[in-house]
Amino acid sequence: MRRSAALVVLVGCAEPAPPVAPMDEHVIVRDACAPAELATGDREVFWIARCDGGSIRSVALGGGAISVLATGEAEAAMLASDGEYVYWMRVPSVGYGGSIVRMPRDGGAIAVLATGQSEMFTTLPQQLAVDATQVYRSRFSKDGSSPQATIAIGDSAPFLAVDGSGLYWANGHSVHHRPAGTSLDETLAETGRIIGQPIALTRSAVWFWNGGLAHAPKDGGPGSQIVLEETPLLGAFAGSADVVIWQRSGELMQADEAGEVSTLLTLTNLTAPVERLAADDERVYWIANGSVMSVPL
To answer: For the chain, is the Cβ count within 10 Å smaller at the N or the C terminus?
Structure first.
């Protein structure tokens, strides 16, 4: 009788169970094998997986089957893509004697572009960038045929970003631009506070953090302080053509060049904390809880 009564109470008197929701509409790769760095190409999002001894993986921007492009990459760190190739650093545990390599976006032979690399800041994001002709960590040709050249020496490891107009970097107390095809060093912004976070690019501005969110026009001119007293998670900052995106507590935030700030997405226990951010002009991608996430802009 006791067992029968218990069954009547549990089944007959309980509220109807809510429908089971999908795991999360923002997950494009669940259990991505301890993902670390993140980069986007024209058709794929790439990441470094750690659970299998180190591999380079990719998936279509909208999700789908995972491609394992390279294995045995225990020393892989940093990641960048130009749409044709994917690039990464190999950083030995001793911190020097590293290399920079690339492989075709769909897999294939790995080419070593540079060896003997030192001071490879693997705990910081944005330490590797590529444009149409160059790889930037220090500067050398994409096929490794020309020697490396030092662009700038500063008081901290620079955060790098590139677009069609050239290379941008934040170095301690200033933000700089090197126009494509030149050896110029244009100072776009200076601040008395240390720029200790990554930078991001929109269509006409470079964005940086100096105790608050600021931007400086790419063509020079005064910068504008947009959001004060914000401190993003290191690595959780990205730009698209129209907005920059960062994490604020339980939200993904966005700001446009007019200074309009809004919430892009309220995060859940599944979609936070945001560990790395990447963006193209249509979507934002990030790593959280061992998965790769995405949301449209």
So the answer is: N
Pairwise CA distance, residues 72 & 160, whole Å: 27
Domain 25-143 belongs in CATH node 3.40.390.10: no
Distance (Å, rounded) from C-alpha 30 to C-alpha 39? Answer: 17
Structure tokens at 182: 């030149």
| b/e sequence 77-102, b meaning 16+ C-beta within 10 Å | bbbbbbeebbbbbbbeeeeeebbbbb
Residues 6 or more apart in contact with residue 280 via CB below 8 angstroms: 40, 61, 240
pTM above 0.85, yes or no: no
Q: Name residues whose C-beta falls within 8 Å of residue 182's C-beta, 6 or more positions apart in sequence.
A: 166
Residue 113: is its pLDDT beyond 50? yes
pLDDT over 80 (residue 188) = yes
Q: How far is CA 267 from CA 71, 90, 249, 273, in A?
A: 32, 33, 9, 8
Alpha-carbon 186 to chain mean position: 25
- Residues 32 and 57 sit within 8 Å (Cβ to Cβ): yes
Q: Which amino acid is at 48?
A: I
pLDDT at 94: 73
Sign of CA dihedral 146, 151, 153, 158: negative
- Average pLDDT of the chain is 81
**Which pLDDT value is given to residue 153?**
59
Burial 254-272 (b: 16+ CB within 10 A, else e): bbbbeeeeeebbebeeebb
Q: Where are the domains of the chain?
A: 25-143
